[in-house]
Amino acid sequence: MSERSQEQTGRTAAHDSAFMRACRREPVPHTPVWFMRQAGRSLPEYRKVREGIPMLDSCMRPDLVTEITLQPVRRHGVDAAIFFSDIVVPLKAIGIDLDIKPGVGPVVADPIRTRADLARLRDLEPGDVSYVTEAVGMLTAELGTTPLIGFAGAPFTLASYLIEGGPSRTYERTKAMIYGDPQLWADLVDRLAAITSAFLRVQIEAGVSAVQLFDSWAGALAPADYRRYVMPASARVFDAVADYGVPRIHFGVGTGELLGLMGEAGADVVGVDWRVPLDEAVRRVGPGKALQGNLDPAVLFAPRDAVEAKTDEVLAAARGLEGHVFNLGHGVMPTTDPDALTRLVAYVHEQTAR
Ligand code: CP3
């Protein structure tokens, strides 16, 4: 089979799945469920295959990427797979010296803080991430009708790691650049929008069914600043992949005040954390978009009855939505009991079966 027809096959097989239908706001047989960070340390089979292999090395091995991506699909029966990788993979691929430190997150050896530093952010070519193309091909062949979600980090969230040099709670250097040198900031997020767009296009060309843009830390900004300094770059990313017609999901944490703008940036599906109930979120986002979310991941540490009661609340708030993809309000925490996740998938399917 030619590469082109293989890519078509993966997307065609998954086209009528509950997840794809919910993203398109079509009727569904049950509310589809997947979890951010469903592949990862909560699974013993993940910890086993990752033993002794650094995170970024594992992202560059198609055999491992395929196995790890499939693990939560097999175990939990989720309605979608998310490609195992990381938001910093494309930056590593263009030669930025960075690492993912366990328990910390991405750490950048030489932060980007001046105009001269921008030259280090060259464009991403598909050949820089050929292991991604290979792994997506292997996965769509294995997944059959289960859709595969590709993803990338949004310009603001990537810029925050590059400027701060690692995770931050306050984003002081990032904000110092935004407010102190808005032209440098605009040029930086423009470079990152090009890299992110290229990374998403590689995944779509290889056959993913949908893409999610993670602007995890955008909630640090006030709406007016988000609109002025961040939204245009994210909108360029959504525009760059619009022609493929695959659903585009836009997610951030603590973004209750930004939900309308995140929809406006071009998403088909807006991800919502647990701080805003979905019936309020839909008022903020407006018509014509599906919502994804939004059980607090910490709820999974409570007894089963409490998890079901909180899940009932999410499903009740979702009742009037045009399209709902059930998810957590942020990623699965590493110490979560995997059986609680498996039970949650079954519970949502049962409660929403039509
Ligand atoms: O299952 C999935 O969701 C797919 C894989 C995935 C990973 N990272 C794997 C990973 C996805 C979608 C991401 C995105 C990502 N990476 C985001 C956006 C999502 C979010 O959480 O808001 C961000 C901010 C990052 C940056 C990053 N990478 C962090 C903060 C960490 C955690 C550091 C730690 O050890 O606590 C990572 C590492 C990482 N990425 C792990 C995984 C499974 C843990 C690595 C390990 O197993 O040691």
End-to-end separation in angstroms reads: 37 Å
Average pLDDT rating: 96
Order of helices and strands: HHHHHEHEEHEHHHEHEHEHEHEH
Overall body shape? globular
Which runs of at least 5 residues are low in confidence (pLDDT < 50)? Answer: none
The total count of strands amounts to 9
CATH architecture: Alpha-Beta Barrel
> Which percent bin holds the helix content?
40-55%
Biggest β-sheet description = 7 strands, parallel
Number of helices: 15
Q: What is the third-level CATH name, the topology? A: TIM Barrel
What small molecules are bound in this structure? coproporphyrinogen III
Per CATH, the class reads: Alpha Beta
Instruction: State the strand order across the main sheet.
Output: 1-4-5-6-7-8-9
Rg result: 19 Å
Please state roughly what percent of the residues sit in beta strands, choosing from under 5%, 5-15%, 15-25%, 25-35%, 35-45% or over 45%: 5-15%
Helix/strand class: alpha/beta
Summed up, the domain count is 1
Architecture blueprint of SSEs:
Blueprint (H helix, E strand, L loop, with lengths): L2 H12 L3 H6 L20 H7 L4 H5 L2 H15 L4 E2 L6 H5 L4 E4 L3 E4 L21 H14 L4 E6 L1 H10 L7 H9 L1 H25 L3 E5 L8 H20 L5 E4 L7 H6 L4 E3 L6 H8 L4 E6 L8 H14 L6 E5 L9 H15 L2
Parallel strand pairs: 1-4, 4-5, 5-6, 6-7, 7-8, 8-9
Antiparallel strand pairs: 2-3
Helix pairs in contact: 1-7, 5-7, 7-10, 8-10, 9-10, 10-11, 14-15
Entry keywords:
single chain, 354 residues, alpha/beta, TIM Barrel, two-stranded antiparallel sheet, 15 helices, 9 strands, 11% strand, globular, binds coproporphyrinogen III, Uroporphyrinogen decarboxylase, Uroporphyrinogen_deCOase, UROD/MetE-like_sf, cytoplasm, lyase
